[in-house]
Design a protein that fits this description.
The complex is a heterodimer of chains A (about 280) and B (about 170). With about 280 residues, chain A is of the alpha+beta class. Chain A is built from five helices and twelve strands. In chain A, the strands form two sheets. A six-stranded antiparallel barrel of chain A has the order 1-2-5-4-3-12. In chain A, strand 4 and strand 5 form a beta hairpin. Chain A is globular, with a radius of gyration of 23 Å. Chain B has six helices and no strands. Chain B starts with a helix and ends with a helix. Chains A and B meet through helix 2, helix 3 and strand 2 of A and helix 3, helix 4 and helix 5 of B.
Amino acid sequence: MQQLIFFIQRFKYFLFFILLESIAFSLILTNLNFQKSKFVNSTNSIVGGIYTQKSKITSYFNLKSENQLLAAENARLRNELQKKVFATPIKDSTIVDTVRYFQKFSFKSGKIISNNYNKEFNFLTLDIGKNQGIEKEMAVINSLGIVGIIDNTSDKYARVQSVLNKNSKINARLRNSNYFGTLDWNGDDYRSIQLIDIPRQAPLKIGDTIETGGKSTIFPEGILIGTVSKINRGNSAENRVLIKLFNDMSSLGTVYVIKNFDKLEIKKIENLENE
Amino acid sequence: MNNPFKLFFLFFSLLFLQVFILNNILLFDAINPYLYIVFVFLYPLKENKIPILFYSFLLGLLVDFFSDTGGIHAFSITVIAHIRLFFVKVYFNKLEIDFPFFSLKTESFGKIFNYVVTLTVIHHFIFFSLANFSFHNFSNVLSNTFFSSIFTLFLYFIGSAIFTRNE
């Protein structure tokens, strides 16, 4: 016993150092793991509150570009509407029963109050949280394309795992064909992202548009991602294709969070199949 | 710097300087200074290491809260807080008796330069290795360590030149 006390007396600084380091290291490990609940992040009310105050001031500087983005999006949506108007009369005269209409996705707008894009594991913080109905594993997009997936929520704030995170794996496909692959980021450049596991026979050309595939319960089909900028013709197994993002991840303002109403139902069926 | 109120002020000014200004600099899209480690250089030397270990861990943890990095800052700043006394003994030839009278202001520039550069490079190397968390992009880790260290040291020496009173 005396020996033990003597030992602790002698190495107390080193033991305290080891204690602090093991706390820090366990925090690092839990932060890398997507599924576990986290402790150190920017969704708690103090840090989130400070970031909200900061973003109230800095958001004035981005008003002009934010307005231009909104106008561009409105123009695009109006064009889509016009297409629908022309398309309807050609259809057969089947009766559409509006009572049985079933909405699959709902959108909620929020603001990015903290943004990272230069690390290997990037996260963003949103100013909406559980009180506004935000839950884990919801999709986050903006007018130009995908942004990420909600990975942690508190009452008033939510943390988004950006597409620029080495842990993000998002299903993506070529527009106008059903060849699909997985988005992956190598941690290098925030303007581009990689598409892996796309079949070799897929007719890829530089400049082709890549969009989300709708094969997960998180992202709806057809959300824009980017254009193909470099095709690897080598013999590597995973067939990496470089994608240039439509989004400028370094300047994000308003985003939309997408809720999928069918998620539980789809998950239930998929689990049954596995058993 | 022996005044506890001054240390408290230093702690929070370094924290807010780091998370609101320096984290947004991103020179050439990647290079960021991490000036909050100056806390370790300026904390008075004492034989009892528990307070400095605890406060620097806390500072690192708060920086982590703001930048969503898990515990990477906390880990790397605690390492340099622990090995600080060793380098003081190596570079300045000081013993425990000299600690209460030690001040960076009275030492020669060459010694301070060696001391600060060593601790900064160690901190940045641990920080970027943990941020990368694989051996995949190891050249990136080395280049980030190199350029960010230069940036941090540049800011530190400019800051110390400005804030040191000429007497």
